[in-house]
Amino acid sequence: MIKKLFVAGADVFRLNMSHGAHPDIRERHAMIRSIEEEMGRPIAILADLQGPKLRCGAFTNSREMLEEGAIFRFDLDATEGDSMRVTLPHPEIFAALKVGSTLLVNDGRIKLEVIECGEDFANTTVVVGGEISNRKGVNVPDVVLPLDALSEKDLKDLEFVCELGVDWLALSFVQRAEDVEKARELVKGRAAIISKIEKPAAVDAFEKILAASDGIMVARGDLGVELPVHELPPIQKRLVRGCRAVGKPVIVATQMMESMITSPVPTRAEVSDVAQAIYEGADAVMLSAESAAGDYPIEAVTTMNNVSESVERDVIYRQVIESSRTESAGRVADAITVAARQVAETADVKAICCFTHSGTTAILAAREKPRVPIIALTPLVKTARQLVLTWGLHCVVVEEVGRFKEAVAAATKIAKDDEFGAGGEQIIVTAGIPFNVPGSTNILRVAAVD
Question: Of the residues 85, 196, 367, 369, which is catalytic?
Fold first, then answer.
């Protein structure tokens, strides 16, 4: 099934650390690497850490109905709850609450407002009622909680997947840039870091979080619980555009093809949702339950891939992308990638070939969203795998080259072998002199394919 999903258009596979023990994760990781070897194409693996889970305790009757206007209490008393109270075994929540704070239960279906609180309790008024049952999730949208983004489980999972050899690590429950910096100290360069934006505090601190991260995931599920749903579209647009401006990959995730869990075709609204993310310039769109547990995983990936290709053929897509470009940072590498895009749009060029060690040059080329394919050439398997998350990159692992002449020869051969250009057609080659020094891109050449 993983092979079929890859053939259908999946470039990155997510290992959700909320599900499965370490032996299960290891087995799935091995499957993906085996398929990668068989297909001869780099595949990225993203490990998604669970993050702290805030849940209420259990009830004597397993469930209770909370009526609008009723008073309900959360406290640290471990005894089973009833219609008047339940334990909330998270003293850090009580430490952060204040009168007027909102508590959301069961994915936001129940809404309560704090009317009195202390270090071990919170009395609330039920604003929106509903059924509350054992160990339902609790969200606190309007305060920054004094919680680390990494729980004890996350710390163990982080070390396990980094040693296993994943390419990207997704951090849940990010509230501030310091959460990312702490994770980076633990990762020690073994994986790139994606920050999941799923809390209002993360939206408020987005610029600093983006600066500390290697990429961003717009995690609309939890974000849609903690914020009014009508605020999500402009937030999504702003986050995607912010990532494009600095040349960092951005994933749009959650409920993109939700109906395809049980249906072989999506709703028209879901198709439009995926298309909108692509029009905005997202690098990746992500499936969750549709491919993890749904009845039609191949159809879901195929549909999403078809929507992506259809949008990118649209004239309006080009107009939107080109009108929303931001100025480069003024470095030589930025200037080279801008020039490559301009030459490709002016001359009859079939592809842009970027030699890269760290991946930065290829990401900058992708930020420009050129009208021709981008071939990312790197001697490092790790870099190739990480780059497949980025928009428009065809990643190829090549031998080390020591001279620009060798780089041009390698680029023209790969362009021909992978059917990006035929004999006599032109490609652009960018590289850095001296070779194999990250961030040194300083040369551009138009070369003919043999």
Answer: 196
The 10 Å Cβ neighbour count of residue 276 is 16
* 187-194: Cβ within 8 A, 24+ apart: 187/158, 187/162, 188/162, 190/162, 190/163, 190/165, 191/47, 191/161, 191/162, 191/166, 191/167, 192/167, 192/168, 192/386, 193/168, 193/169, 194/46, 194/168, 194/169, 194/170, 194/251
Instruction: Reply yes or no on whether 369 is catalytic.
Output: no
CATH class of 63-139: mainly beta
Spans of all domains in the chain: 2-51+149-320, 63-139, 332-448
Segment 210-214 mean pLDDT: 98
Report the pLDDT value the prediction gives residue 17, as an integer from 0 to 100: 95
- Is position 199 annotated as part of the catalytic site? no
Whether 328 shows a pLDDT value over 80: the answer reads no
Per-residue pLDDT tens digits for 105-139: 998 999 999 999 999 999 999 999 999 999 999 99
Architecture of domain 332-448: 3-Layer(aba) Sandwich (3.40)
What pLDDT was estimated at residue 6?
A: 97
Task: Out of 33, 41, 53, 55, pick the active-site residue.
Answer: 55
Beta pairing class for 374-378 and 393-397? parallel
Active-site annotation holder among 102, 124, 254, 360: 254
135 part of the active site: no
> Within a 10 A sphere around the Cβ of 232, how many other Cβ atoms?
15
pTM equals 0.92
Is 73 among the catalytic positions?
no
pLDDT, tens digit, 9 for 90 and up, residues 291-327:
999 999 999 999 999 999 999 999 999 999 999 888 7
Q: pLDDT tier at 329 (50, 70, 90 boundaries)?
A: low
Superfamily of domain 2-51+149-320: Phosphoenolpyruvate-binding domains (3.20.20.60)
Catalytic residue among 14, 85, 184, 369: 14
